[in-house]
Design brief:
The protein is α/β, with parallel strands linked by helices. It has one domain (11-319): Rossmann fold (3-Layer(aba) Sandwich). It is 39% helix and 11% strand. It is built from 10 helices and 8 strands. It has helices at residues 16-39, 56-63, 79-84, 89-96, 131-143, 162-174, 221-236, 268-275, 279-289, 296-319, and strands at residues 71-74, 120-123, 150-155, 178-184, 187-188, 191-192, 213-217, 242-247. The strands form 2 sheets. A 6-stranded parallel β-sheet has the order 2-1-3-4-8-7, sandwiched between helices. A hairpin with a 2-residue loop joins strand 5 (187-188) and strand 6 (191-192). Helix 1 (16-39) crosses helix 2 and helix 2 (56-63) runs parallel beside helix 7. The protein starts with 15 loop residues before the first helix and ends in a 15-residue tail after the last helix.
Length: 334
């Protein structure tokens, strides 16, 4: 039986330091993205931005199970993954402003962030484009006899690409240490999943390739953390890949800082239902029900500290220098 139901995960099952880490990661991503919403209308950022607001539990839950030297590969909606893996916030903000101090030297923008020091090997705006890249590092780990794990984050649209199926087959055949994390937010740009696929069962696609497939509430960070931890453990033990479908929802439009309800492809009621299931609020409710694991005062201090870091990152990005013209072809390979 390859369809593995996610087991129940309780607050008591997770160490306090991990609970704190999960909460801080989600709040950091949320506050950072909200800062971008505030700054973007000034039109000083020339890069398109695809915001991660609403999906924070996926990046936080998965990356909290990884080591610094593990590899992750992301998509055009990459900010959350980058921050959750420990990427440098100042360098990320500088990249948005096209500055030479940016994580991609000001040449990649929002959709092409990288930080090899923390295992963020790169992001790509090509739908499904990072899936074979993650398989490459996973194969390298096997050949080098290393116990590193690779993670590919991708959306529901990528499950319709041929490369998704090719790589699942290859990864299963070679028992590669890779986790396929599908962030199913139900929309490929403006097209709902039911308009593109004959069924709503992405996780079951794993069965045809002989690897475990799981579906999890992508807004419940404890559940994401639980299934990711098990999958990472399997990968490190040489048991091969896992496909995890995390069902979640983006609050903002496909691209840009605005809400796109007026475009008519989704309803205000649908958005409001998902906002009520805010992953951060869900974790806070669990904290309250379990004796106030993090107090209101502690939460306020966490937010203040994160906001200071974000403000420092903003000032760093604004004050940094642009690349010189002669740097145009530096770090570019043809």
């Amino acid at each position: 039986m390859l369809e593995m139901p996610s087991k129940l995960i309780y607050v008591q099952d997770i160490p306090l330091e991990v609970l704190n880490k999960l909460y801080k990661i989600m709040v950091t991503i949320r506050r950072f993205e909200e800062k971008i919403v505030d700054l973007y209308p000034a039109q000083e950022m020339k890069t398109p931005v695809h915001l991660y607001i609403g999906q924070e539990a996926v990046a936080a839950g998965v990356c909290a199970t990884l080591r610094k030297d593990d590899y992750i590969f992301s998509t055009h909606r990459s900010h959350g993954h980058y921050l959750a893996k420990g990427g440098n916030m100042k360098r990320l903000m500088a990249e948005f402003y096209g500055k030479r101090t940016g994580c991609s030297r000001g040449k990649g923008g929002s959709m092409h962030v990288v930080d090899s020091e923390v295992g963020v090997c790169g992001t790509t705006a090509i739908v499904g484009g990072n899936i074979p890249l993650a398989a490459g590092t996973a194969l390298a780990s096997v050949l080098r006899n290393e116990d590193r794990v690779s993670v590919s984050f991708f959306g529901d649209g990528a499950s319709e690409e041929g490369v998704f199926h090719e790589v699942l087959n290859f990864a299963s055949l070679k028992k590669l240490p890779i986790i396929f994390v599908c962030e199913n937010n139900f929309y490929a740009t403006h097209s709902h999943q039911t308009k593109r696929q004959p069924h709503d069962l992405i996780y079951k696609l794993a069965k045809g390739y002989g690897l475990p497939g799981l579906r999890v509430d992508g807004n419940n960070v404890l559940k994401v953390y639980g299934v990711a931890k098990d999958a990472v453990g399997r990968a490190r033990d040489g048991e091969g890949p896992t496909l995890i479908e995390c069902r979640t929802y983006r609050w903002k439009g496909h691209v840009g800082p605005e809400c796109d309800i007026k475009l008519g492809y989704r309803s205000r009621d649908e958005l409001n239902r998902w906002i009520k299931r805010c992953p951060i609020k869900m974790l806070e409710r669990l904290f309250r029900r379990n004796g106030g694991i993090i107090s209101e005062k502690e939460k306020e201090e966490i937010v203040k500290q994160i906001d200071r870091e974000i403000q420092n990152a903003y000032e760093y990005g604004k004050e940094s220098a642009y690349p010189e013209p002669e740097e145009l072809f530096t770090d570019v390979w043809g």
